[in-house]
Automatic annotation (TrEMBL):
Lineage, broadest ranks: Bacteria, Pseudomonadati, Pseudomonadota, Betaproteobacteria, Burkholderiales
Name of the protein this chain belongs to: GGDEF domain-containing protein
EAL domain residues: 23-277
Parent sequence residues shown: 672 to 950 of 962
Cellular localisation: Membrane
Coiled-coil features, chain-numbered ranges: none
Length: 279
């Protein structure tokens, strides 16, 4: 039992022990994962609704550990954040995604936009802008072919610093998306103040389109709001034809989700590009 204060004891249950143990196990394994080359990126297509064509992809990290097996990001991103390991891991993701996109560009497979998730730790790192600039220079990827995905929580600490950082990022020529839009607590006012390009509507709203009329109304309102602010909209987690029809009917720009494809390894993504797979 851990003493919390006078006469206040919190007892660990076996389940909590298990969780703590798992964290420790993951943390120590995570320390060697980069040098042992255990990470791989999967890519999930982003499809333009007007043309039905793949116009971009989100890079999503996968960790293949020899004993733990395939560890999903939900089980290690939090640990990586807490330990700061997300900074070198995130740098690897950025470089790998940009190099891959440049290879596809050079192979004549299209001028695609690759989206990379940015963590809070990376956002707070003093060399972020220089790092992105160096990766673009080293890989030769046109800046417009890189999209940085940010969550609303990144802006909570210091809004002035965030605005400045986003403007510096914008000056590099990359595009910027707000990820998981609608799940954060921040006010809508930042939408007009920040130089962002894309809103990604969170899967929780999209999945409720056919279940809940209020959620459906929220989705169409977000699309209208975004368009009024000259932002484009990507719907995340699209799984059914009904969801797609609704999004199309309300002028959503792009979709991403299992209905078209789950995230796949680079070789498989390349096949989709070569076959010119369409919605
Ligand atoms: P996210 O950025 O919101 O990514 C979307 C997640 O939804 C992905 O889960 C994706 O596989 C899943 N998804 C996509 N379409 C569908 C669908 O139609 N239905 C359902 N049920 N799920 C769908 P994943 O790959 O497990 O990643 C989970 C989270 O881990 C991501 O959420 C992101 O926050 C984080 N993450 C993944 N890769 C990275 C990374 O390289 N860096 C950082 N900082 N975070 C990452
Ligand atoms: Ca994302
Ligand atoms: Ca998301
Ligand atoms: Ca999410």
């Amino acid at each position: 039992a851990k003493k919390l204060g006078r006469n206040n004891f919190q007892f660990y249950t076996p389940a909590m022990n298990e969780e703590a143990l798992e964290r420790v196990r993951i943390e120590s394994a995570l320390r060697n994962a980069l040098e042992r080359d255990e990470f791989v990126l999967h890519y999930q297509p982003q499809v333009e609704l007007a043309s039905g064509q793949i116009v971009g992809m989100e890079a999503l990290i996968r960790w293949q550990h020899p004993e733990l097996g395939m560890v999903p990001p939900v089980r290690f991103i939090g640990v990586a954040e807490d330990t700061g390991l997300i900074v070198p891991i995130g740098a690897w993701v950025l470089r790998t995604a940009c190099a891959q996109n440049k290879a596809w560009l050079d192979a004549g497979l299209g001028r695609l936009r690759v989206a990379v998730n940015l963590s809070a730790r990376q956002f707070a790192a003093p060399n972020l802008i220089a790092q992105i600039e160096a990766v673009l220079a080293d890989t030769g990827l046109p800046p417009a072919c890189l999209d940085i995905e940010l969550t609303e929580s990144l802006f909570m600490d210091d809004i002035t610093v965030a605005v400045e950082l986003l403007h510096s990022m914008k000056a590099l020529g990359v595009s910027m998306s707000i990820d998981d839009f609608g799940t954060g607590y921040s006010s809508l006012s930042y939408l007009s103040r920040f130089p962002i390009d894309v809103l990604k509507i969170d899967r929780s709203f999209v999945s409720a389109i056919n279940r809940d009329a209020n959620d459906a109304a929220l989705v169409s309102s977000i699309i209208a709001l975004a368009h009024n602010l000259k932002l484009s909209v990507i719907a995340e987690g699209v799984e059914t034809a009904e969801q797609l029809a609704y999004l199309r009917g309300h002028g959503c720009d792009e979709m991403q989700g299992y209905f078209f494809s789950k995230p796949v390894p680079a070789a498989e993504f390349e096949q989709m590009l070569r076959q010119r797979r369409r919605l």
